[in-house]
Structures are given as structure tokens and as C-alpha cells.
Amino acid sequence: MAVADIRSDFIMTDLIPVLFGIILSFLIFRFWVPFALRKVQIAFYTDDGIYEVHRITDTFKQSRKLLGEDGAIFGVTLYRMAVTGLMILAGEIAFQPEEYSLHVLILIMMLLAIPVLISPVSSLIGQFTRTLSSRKADLIDYKRNRRVLIVVVTVMLFALSLGFWVYLTRTLGMSPEEGRAWTLVLFLFPSVLVYGRVMGSSWNGLVQQKWKRAKGQASALNPHPPRFFARLLALFILVNIVLMPITALNGFSSYLYDWYLYQFAPDDLFSHSEQALLVYPEISTMSLSQKGGLIGYLSIELFSQVPDVFVAKFLSQLTVLFLILNVTLIGLAFVYEMVRMQFIGLGTIGGFGGVVIADGRALRAESSHRGLLVSFCFSAFTGYTVLMLVMAIFGRFPGVLPDAQMCSTNLGAIVGDFSPEYRGTSLHAEACGVLDPLVVEQLTFAINAAGQALFIPFWFISLPKWFKMKRANFDLSAIEDRGGPIIIEDKKEMAKLLSRTKPGEDALSLLKTDRLSDLVSVLNRLDRSDASRDRELHARTEMLFAASRGDWQRAEDYAVNLLAQKEGEDLMCRKLLAAAALANRDLLEAKIRLEDLPVDESESDQLRWVASLFALKGKLRKFEVDEMLQLTPGGRRLEDLVSRFPMLMAWPSKKPRIDNAVDRRGLLGDVARLRLSGRSEDALAKIREVQTMMPDMLGARWFVAEALCLIDMGEVDQAMRIHYELSKSESEDPYVAGLCEVLRTLGQEAPHLIDRRMDGLIEVTVATDSKKMSRLEWSRIVNNMPTNAVAALKLGRKGEDEALASNAWVTMGPAIKKNMWPVVRGAFAVSNAMFICMILAGALVIYMEGALGVPLVIGAIGLWARAGNKRQVVRHRDMPLCRDYSSRLRTKRAMVKYNELPVGTHLMLSGIIVPIGDVPIDLGYPLWVDPLVGKRDKWLPGLNLGRGSAKKRKKKLEEHLDGESSGIEGRGQVSKSTLLSMIDKKNVQKRQKYDGIKNLSSSIIQAKEDGMVFESKENDDRRIGGPRRPSSRGPSRKRNPPPGFVKKSQFGDNDSVFY
Question: Structural domain boundaries of the chain?
Fold first, then answer.
């Protein structure tokens, strides 16, 4: 077989193909690659089978930005090297195909070898590492572990390949050519595997999406309707994709026949006719794989009947080449489609076994995740596809294949003794040996058959999801519907615009004013809407609603979902994710999340303040509290709560205020602390005082708290009457449902006590007798509610440390009786006495036996340091500090148990309250937030306890607080007419902003059988306050309608819909 020569001397014309390749690769990366990556989209599941599609690249600038994302440089660099090597090879073949320059050939081999060698390593790591979530701390761990894995996997693959090569050549006696080919097949197996997984699992989605594009429709992969040329290209791709299973079966079966099955078949099974041998005389020496398998064999017989020999040869060769390289050509020619498939998630939506680097919502929300996915796509697919392309070129055109023997000789003269030798061969000889024609042929068919064989099973197991993929609803216009330009042509369009925006503010106001029953009804309506704006508002409200109730897993899921819908730019979501990290006691994640929040912003700074309280070490503790931050409602509550924790003081030392949602939520927690300390009468008096001062601004939970206090005092009948009144108007309120379950567990029976255990409400779940639940199931519930100490106590003894990490105030009842005040011990605690004894024993051994005692001392010091570090690790479950303190409480019989708590404690108890979007959020109160611990005076500005023992510092703190306060500061009782007049003035000012629109207040969409009807009122009676909740202290008042509804509190089919 004729091959190209290799010239060892260097001449200036050798630079021509190099310059050609560099310039061409530059143009490709400057223009073609950004053009091919335009309109890349991400799809993520919202609900009810809807996948919201977001476009991340629309212009050349955005495509280049995607290629330059953090983490993408590694894969993009490998792809650039491979393309540059291919272009230089193309230039070398174009300018002088019959002779290569040794220096240029070495450059080409280096540029192609590096991506080929790294490709299996990247593929293996990408397939067997866990999917990245929205948790940013996981990304840091992933990058750190990835560096270690790269080294470990590289060494492992090279060692395994070397051992396999020795086994093939020395043990089995294979020829060097076959040994090299099969060794490369083994080395590239991870890349072949990831290729088969991606193509097999994405086949359903590719066929359906390309069929849409071929028909001229927009698809999830391509958001705009195509033009004529794009439709032709889509049709061409569609034909190739549809034929992929057939060609894969054909290629794999033919290779299996040549390798093993031929010995069981007759010799003349695939012999050709005389006419075929006359047209193609060379096929007599070809194997079945070289002919293109069974289909190739039949095509040769068919095309041999064509009269024109040239046409017959061309058609048969084209068919054979297509059959051999179909699966590979799809991935090589459409590598950018692979990127689109990975971003859109076709492998998971419409198939099984796909490779998932990051969750779709995390991809949309975090740019660093997108960079890692781009890096994986380019680095994992580059080596395999480039090697197959080079082998295909050399295999079909052997005249341009460099001479392997000349390459080895010339390269040996250059490297000399630097190339290691092993058993008669050397490294440079094996590198050049890959260019041997037999190796090229064997490698081409072996890797191609492996890729086809791995494609078939993943394609087959993904076929059942064909109809699921077809039913999937891809919302391609979500961004335009949510925030696109709206042209208002007439009054009706303005009314529609107002109906979709202004009522949305009222939905959040229901949450801020604690009108949860109305809010639940609105959320149920929003959940049935298909509009993208409705989905966004539903997710935002559900996020804050879940966080305000302590359902942090649900809140975090909604936050990530909403952050993805908002293209990663939503401050409220990022604040809630930071709060979720603090609630889960995950300070590493909290630190990363807090870095994304703006500085000198009230709510963000309060989260930083809380993080500095929760941290036992590190940079989070260095936050300095601003004086303005202390004056905020959250700052006032936080400072007061931390100050009185060492004395377990149930009521604030300063007169509390109630004119803010944060103050009211914190005050309800103080009422719960009064109940925990056995002062239910005082708690009831405080509740009724607040009800007298603010009859129009209290939510149903204040009347639930009143009922719980009455239960403590034995007046269950009055509590039943309160629930009866609440059930008539506030039946959807989760706290009312929790009170209902409390009464049911007490043995009460009444028609209004409805079983709500199947509704999935955490307020009901915690109040329910959980004996039927396994410990594992309840442990999962505790993980979802990390700030709910009552839920943790239901785990029994194993949940006591979680309760102390959630809210240490829960133990105040028995602790006060046993005179056990919370003290976070220092480094020289009694638990460290064992290590001190070990050091003293080691010193004694050194004194008696000399150096034999040195290891004992060093080991004791190391264990002591490790124990101290473990005590400073903050986490929600199994924290050593909390386990030690719970053990001490059990020793003194001061550890509270679930059945010793006042009933319904979980409905009232709270810890540190922070506002997010003006909605009060409870972060619990971990045990280690103790101002008496040394070096923590800066926690509470203005409070300097000085030095000395804990008792002296505690005494100074008691003098500073000066006991519990009396009375409550508030705005007092405000008449309803005054409130309505103030709100009406604001509505008038808002209406004046719309020029040309008169007599139009907030429009209301009413659901009618004949369509959507718009109504307008001259005077909008909306108000920020809720109605007075009924109680047992008097007859119930007639409820006024909530904002946006007309004369009804219950929702029917003809009621108005608002956001």
C-alpha cells in the first residue's frame, strides 16, 4: 500500500500549512463556532408537564461569553487544539499530499494527541460524578475533587492500558499492530461510552424536534421557524438520525461476524456475483465490515447492475462510507447539536441513561455550571470524534497516510535516548506505530463498532419514553410573555395589563398581612394557570409562604426554580437561598450565597449579621454591625433575643413593638416562650392585649395562639369555640389546620374538626401522632424543617441534638426548673479531660522510658486538636457541641421531651426573625449563639461585658437587661374609615399615572362561560389590613371581602381571579 513519505529537514515552505491552519482555525473560532452556538436554550420543569425554555445565547457576543464562562476554558482549549491540528493536517495534505515535513507532523500529532488522551479522562469523570445542584458549595467540592480525579483517573487509565498492551502482545501473542489498535480501543472506551449514552438517550427528542423543524415549526432546539435552507438541513439530519439504529445494528453485527461468527457460517455466505466482481474487483479481499455490513453487501450487488461503472462505484462507495460512519458522522458534523441537546436536557426528558452534568434550573441560574457543561461537551467528545475523522481520512485515502517506519526512524534520531524503551520497543515507536495502515483499519472498525454497540441499548431502553417526550409542553415564549415589550393600543389592553400586574402585588400583601386562608385560595387558582407570569408569581409567593412556615426544602426548590425563570437575576431568590443555607446550618453555602448579595442593603446585612452569630470561626464572624441595622425591626428583635438567651428570659427586656410584621412574628414567639416556661396565663393576657390594640392587622395564628393558651389552662371548650369560628372563615389557613389536629389528638370530636393529615401540611404533620411513621421517614421530615425543634424532638433521644441546633429555646421549661442555664463550654471543658490525662501519661512515660512516650504525647495533642476542630464544625445533624450539651441536660434531667411540651408549640415558637421581601422568616436559634462566650462582645454593639468568668459576665448582662418589660408599644387602634381613606388616596395617585385612562381602577378578570369580562370601579376598596378574626370573647363580625374579590370569602367558579 502506497503511503506518504516523511522529510526530516526543515524548509521555510513548511510554515505554509502551519500558517494556513492557524488562520483557518482562528476564523472558525471567531465566526463559525459562535454562529453555531447561537440560540442555545435551556429547559427546566416547572409543573404539570410544562418545560419552560430560556435562551442563553442569541448573539455572537453572548455565544463568545458562553465559551468564556468560568470552567469552560479547559474544554474549549482542547477543542481549539484539535481543530487547529486538523486544519494544519488539511493544509499539509492540500499543499503537498505525497510528502510530510517531520516537524509539521510532530506538531500535528501533539495538537491531536493531547485532546485524544484527555478525552477519556474527562468522559469518565463527567459520567461518574454526581449531578451538580444549585448548591454552590457543591461546585467548590466538585472542582476540588475534579483536580484530584484527573490525576488519579489519568494514572489509572494509562496503567490499565499499558497492562492490557503487555497482555495482548506478550501473553496472547498478538501482532504489534493489533495490540496497539485494541489498546487504543480500551483507552478510548469512556469516550465511546459517553457518546453512546448521549446519542441513544437523545434519539427520541432529536427525531421529534428535527421533524418539527423540517415542517417549518419552531422547536425546543431551535426557537424560531426555519427558512428553506434550514428546513433542508433539518431534513438531512432527520434522515440520518432515523437511520442510526439500522446502521448501528448493521455495523455491529458485521464486525461481530468478521471477528467471531464467520467460523460458524458457510464460506460462500457473502460471496458476490460475477457482475459485482467485474465492477468492483477489489471486494474479493474485503471483510464484511469493509463492505458496509449486510446492507453494504446488498447495495454492492444492487449498484453493480448500473450500466455506468463510474456511477456504480461512486454510489456503492458512498453507501458503504455512510453505513460505516453514520453514528460517528452525526456526532462529528453536528457536535454543536450535542451541546444543544445537553443544555436542553433531551437525554433526561425523552430517554434513559443520558449524561447529566447539572440540573436544568441550576444551569439557568448559575453561569459557572454552564461553563462546566460546555467544558465537558467539548473535552469529552473532541478526542473520540477527531480520532475517528483522522482514521476515516487515512483509511479511505491511504495515499496521504504518513509512513510509520519513516516516522519512527526520523523521530528516534531527534529524541535519541530520551524516549524510554521497553522489551524491544520505545515510546516514539509506539506513537508512530499508530500510523500503520493495519492499525488504522483495525482501530477504525473497532471503535466504530463499539460506538454502535453502545448506542443500541440506550436507544432501546429510551424508546418507551417516546410518547412522554411527545406530550412534553415546551413553553418557548416564556421570556417574551413575562417581560417582553407590550404595545397598548386601547383601553381594553390597558385593563388587561393592569389585571396581570397590580393584583400580583395583592397576593404578596396577603402573605405580609398574615391572611393565609385567602392566600391559599389564590395560590390554588394560580396553580391552574398556564401563563408564564402566573407561574412566576405562583413560584415567588409559594417560595416566601413555605419559608415563612419553616418548610425550607420546598422554599429552596421554589427559589431555584424562580431564579432559573428570572435568568439568574433575582435578588429576593438569592436572599432566600442564603437564608435557607443559614436555616440548614450550612455555613459554607451561606458564605458563598452572601457574597452574591449587595452590601449596605438592609435585608442582606441582617442575613450577614445572623451568619456572624452562627459561625464559630472563619471570615463570617468579622461582620461589623451598623447602627442603622440595629434600628431595623429585625435588628431590634435579634439584639434583644440574643441578649436574654443566657438567662432564658421569656419576655423582651425592652417594651416590644407591634407596628411591623417582623415585630408581630417575633412577639408571637415570645408568647410561645411564656408557655414553655409555664406562664400560660401571662401569655393569654399578652395575646389579648395585642388583639385589643390591633384588631384589624392580626392573622389567624394569633387566635390559634389564644386557643392554645386556653388549652393549657384547661379551657378546651373555649378553644373549640375559637376553632369553630375560625373554620368558617379561615379554613384554608395552615395554622388553623394545625390547631384542628391538636384538638383531635386531645380526643375532641366535632363536625368542624376535619382530618387534614393527607393534605401534606407541616403544621398538621408535626401535631399528628407519628407512631405509624418509621424513624427514617420522620428523619427526612426533620431535614426538610431544620428550624422546627418540635419536629426534631419527635425523633426521641436521637433528635435532641437537632432540636438544640434548630431552636435551643425549646428546652427552657425543664432547664429553668433544674437551674440549667445554657453555657457553651470552651476548649478546657470536662470532656477534654481524657486528652489531658493522655498528655500527662505520655510525659510520665518520657520521664521513665525516654523517647517511647513521644508518640503518645503527639497522638494525644493531635486528637485534642481534632476534637476541638470538630466542636467548631456547624451543622444541623449530629453536631458534637449539641450532642455534648444534650447529654449534660439528660444527666440533670433537664432535657425536654416531646410529650412534655405544651401542645401546639410548633405553631408559635420562633427564633431569630429576618425579613425577606418584608415577609418575616424564622431562622431558629442554635445553641451556640451565646453572648457570654469570650471574644464575642461585638455581636451586640453597645454591650461590653468585659473580662472575667461566665458568672460575672452573666451578672453584668442581667444588670444590663434589668428584667422583663411591661406593656407593648404600638400604633394603637385605628379606625377602619381612616385606613380606607389613606389607601384611597394612594389609589388615586396611582391612577393619575396612566394618561388618558379615566375612571379605571385595578381591573378584575372574572371567569365567565362566554370568555373574559373586564370590570372597573371608580373607587377601589382594597386595603392592606385584614378583617378582625373571630374569637370566643364576643360575637363574630361580618367579614369584609379580601382585596380583589366581591362580597365573597369563598371561591366559586364565577369568582374573580387575581394574582
Answer: 5-475, 975-1057
